[in-house]
Amino acid sequence: MKSILKISVLTCLVINLFLFPSCKEEDPGQADLSGTVYSDPQSLGNGEVRSYVTKDESGTPVSIGIEFNEAALENLPTGHAHGYSLLFELPEAVPPFNHISFDWNEHGHEPPGVYDVPHFDLHFYFMELEARMAIAAGDTVQFANQPDAAYMPAAYIQLPGGVPAMGSHWIDPATPELHGTPFTYTMIYGSFDGKLTFIEPMFALSYLQQKVTEHIDIPQPASYQLGGYFPMTYGFHYRADNGTYTISLDELVDRD
User: Which intervals hold domain TTHB210-like (predicted)?
Assistant: First the structure.
């Protein structure tokens, strides 16, 4: 009888192990927090654009950027003398970034023979929108007030003057389009009144239409004026399976 009882108990235990997994709660610290979150979309051309944040398993941001479909490059806005802009907030906070401006330049801009081709400026701003919009053409002293040299990539030089609602632009003088190569893309830094204000991938429409995937190292400063997440690379990615483009700042590193 005891043997039968033991067998019955063991049988029940085996059944329970298979049918009723352990009810022990998982450690919340082991939860997978990876994924991508998106902003609400905005219309551009015949399509839509949205911003996004991608996080790793620990919930740490690793990439930010914009995503748009092929139709967004069709029937792009015309007749805007100073370009056409879409403003985005990030769907989740990623300091020091505050907002994004996706700017379409139908005829490009100066200097002639370099950037006077249809292209996009994708500004990732560190400053508040209200403060940015207060930057005026007459702020010549603030445009000329450079950040400490350690806060800019060593090779970068400041372009003359400044742009209202943006600031002063900095560029690598070795970038190919300044030496006769047709413009494809470049990375620009921005400043105003001694502070870093944005980083800006700038890229030609003709380059996007090649439907390429490419990742480029971002020249880094010796020190970081702002705390938070700064990208080591930026990228262009076309997905043939769903016809979408992403323009991204990648390999974010916390500089706090």
Answer: 56-104
DSSP of 150-197, one letter per residue? GGS-TT-EEPSS-BTTTBEEEE-TT-GGGGTPPP-EEEEEEEETTEEE
Element (H, E) at 212: none
DSSP bridge pairs for 69: 244
pLDDT tens-digit series, residues 178-192: 999 999 999 999 999
Amino acid at 90: L
Q: Can you tell me the distance from the alpha carbon of 247 to that of 14, in angstroms, rounded to the nearest whole number?
A: 53
| Interval 59-77: pLDDT, tens | 999 999 999 999 999 999 9
For the entire predicted model, the pTM comes to: 0.87
Question: In what order do the strands lie in the sheet containing 157-158?
Answer: 84-88, 99-105, 119-125, 195-204, 185-192, 168-171, 157-158
Angle at the Cα of 165 from the Cα atoms of 160 and 166, rounded to 5 degrees: 50
Measured torsion, CA atoms of residues 79, 82, 83, 84, in degrees rounded to the nearest 10: -80
- The domain locations on the chain are 27-254
pLDDT, mean over the chain: 91
Find the mean pLDDT for residues 195-224: 98
